[in-house]
Prior knowledge:
By secondary structure, chain A is mostly beta strands. In chain A, 8% of the residues lie in helices and 36% in strands.
Amino acid sequence: xxxxxxxxxxxxxxxxxxxxxxxxxxxxxxxxxxxxxxxxxxxxxxxxxxxxxxxxxxxxxxxxxxxxxxxxxxxxxxxxxxxxxxxxxxxxxxxxxxxxxxxxxxxxxxxxxxxxxxxxxxxxxx
Amino acid sequence: xxxxxxxxxxxxxxxxxxxxxxxxxxxxxxxxxxxxxxxxxxxxxxxxxxxxxxxxxxxxxxxxxxxxxxxxxxxxxxxxxxxxxxxxxxxxxxxxxxxxxxxxxxxxxxxxxxxxxxxxxxxxxx
Lengths: 126, 126
């Protein structure tokens, strides 16, 4: 069991960054607490801690669009991790884009540059 | 000026992820507050907020190993950003590795897999 340092934020959470294991695209970032970290290691499926719901959040649990863990990297301070994942369904973003980071700063505005895999209005969800 | 949502953590900070703009390698993750965000936009150089020093942290300010901003991506909730950077000097990690995420979880242990660009014992620093 690898111990991370959850002590630096007052809420006991550290960032977990999901990156496409094949393309290197950063898909999303969420937070984990110690229990979510343990669940991720034990299940091989990315499990975060939802700050809004104050509950475990198995990404894609309802939609089936899970993130299968292919590799985990830990930073030098052990207070930030990268989940290299296979994103089932192809879209990490609840808006249907492959990545939550689908907008780029351009001339002081946000311009959509990411690829949309599905339209959530058509009944998909994450 | 693009406004981000700094309200979700009690400390008013959001994660900023530095990614090599050419290779896609994730180099490090630190935090920004609103002022660090504004400074990053204004200067074109990655500027974080140091939680330990409670001060601005221009990455590489003393060593010269700055991170030049090539592109900025913003996530769907506007509470997490990716800085695509050119890492001057080649190493983001104060331990001399190209990336702070130079260790991989393997069989319940951390194994070094990242490339070391310099040895900080020889007088370099970040």
